[in-house]
Write a structure and sequence with these properties.
The protein is α/β, with parallel strands linked by helices. Helices cover 42% and strands 12% of the residues. Helix 9 crosses helix 10. It is globular and about 75 Å long.
């Protein structure tokens, strides 16, 4: 195979070390998976215009670090036993949001490390068999469910969601809901509906990492609001409102990512009063709202919203199956047409077949 390596002969770093670093990076990124055969020493030396000793030294260092294995008579191969400390160091070299997302995916699929970057459950706990039963029950309707469908989503599931939301203290109607491809798409749709490039938005600090990537992609500027033991610091939030005139405030009141914190009842009331005073739109991400074990799950912030300033969204990624990618969004009447158009422009509609299977799963009380 031909390795894509670029050597800087004006650099103070030895050429063999540049070869080592670039091969490590390509192994870490997944471009050189386990078992890949590296070029013979002679071939790589000719390709790079260096001596065979330079390439041999690089391969020797890689082998000493556990990155590659040399097999007599067969060649040099990418090993399973790369040094995790060195691997993580490689991933940490670039810290922009796009690179970090790529790194998270690479770590997630690596056999060499265990990553805590994703908030995903143990796959052994998934009710896969029960969900498969729901899929199998749809066989008589398969042709119908494989057709194009409404951008708003499967009606049966939206009806079931009104019952589920009632448990969160929210009264709504099926026509007020739009189904999305996970809560991530819901965030993106709302951001695009409420803002224009260059606008500012408020986010709690710390916050959901992918949110920052979405805001960056939409050319929006996040402004941080610090947290205390009760929730967002409302004095700091009010100062931001006066000085910056942000378009909305994104928050996770229940079991916030990444801290797991829950906003206190009094702080919720005070936040809603502040929002009403300034006309602030609050985007509530309730994706973790059902994850309560010792006590009943706290109500959604939307349940206290009498002024209609809270835009509510959630999904089944954390409480059921991440791979089905079913999220949902309550559409405020003034934004309904805008959100429909944005959803159509994004993907026309989310997969109907999976939505119907999920509706069946909920109807059976699973």
């Amino acid at each position: 195979m031909s390795l894509k390596l670029q050597l800087d002969r004006n650099s103070n770093r030895p050429l063999y070390q540049q070869i080592v670093e670039q091969i490590k990076r390509q192994i870490s990124d997944g471009h050189l998976p386990e078992g890949t055969r590296l070029p013979p020493v002679r071939s790589l030396a000719v390709q790079l215009g260096v001596t065979r000793l330079t390439v041999h030294t690089a391969y020797s260092e890689l082998q000493a670090g556990g990155w590659v294995d040399g097999v007599v008579g067969k060649g040099t191969f990418v090993s399973r036993s790369a040094d995790p400390d060195d691997l993580i160091q490689q991933f940490g070299l670039r810290l922009d949001t796009q690179s970090m997302l790529e790194n998270m995916h690479s770590l997630q699929t690596s056999d060499m490390v265990r990553t805590l970057a994703y908030t995903d459950p143990d796959p052994n706990l998934f009710p896969a068999t029960d969900f498969w039963d729901s899929i199998a029950s749809l066989r008589p309707y398969a042709a119908q469910l494989m057709q194009y469908s409404s951008c708003q989503g499967e009606t049966t599931l939206r009806i079931e969601l009104t019952n589920l939301l009632r448990e969160r203290g929210i009264e709504t109607m099926p026509d007020e809901l739009i189904l999305t491809t996970g809560v991530t798409q819901a965030i993106s749709l709302v951001a695009r509906a409420l803002t224009a490039p260059g606008d500012k938005v408020l986010v709690t600090q710390p916050t959901y990492f992918l949110l920052l990537h979405i805001l960056k992609t939409e050319h929006l500027h996040p402004l941080s609001v610090p947290m205390d033991a009760e929730g967002p610091d409302l004095e700091a939030l009010e100062q931001r409102l006066i000085a910056e005139r942000p378009r909305f405030f994104y928050t996770i009141p229940n079991f916030s990512n990444p801290t797991g914190a829950v906003m206190s009842p009094q702080r919720r009331r005070d936040l809603l009063a502040l929002a009403q005073r300034y006309g602030l739109v609050i985007v509530e991400d309730d994706i973790y709202g059902h994850l309560a074990y010792d006590n009943p799950a706290p109500q959604a912030l939307k349940a206290l919203d009498e002024a209609g300033l809270v835009i509510y969204m959630s999904s089944f990624s954390k409480v059921l199956l991440p791979g089905i990618r079913v999220g949902y969004l309550m559409m405020p009447a003034p934004l309904r047409e805008r959100l429909w158009k944005l959803k159509l422009a994004s993907d026309i509609f989310s997969p109907t077949f999976i939505q119907r299977a999920l509706a069946d799963f909920l109807q059976r009380g699973r």
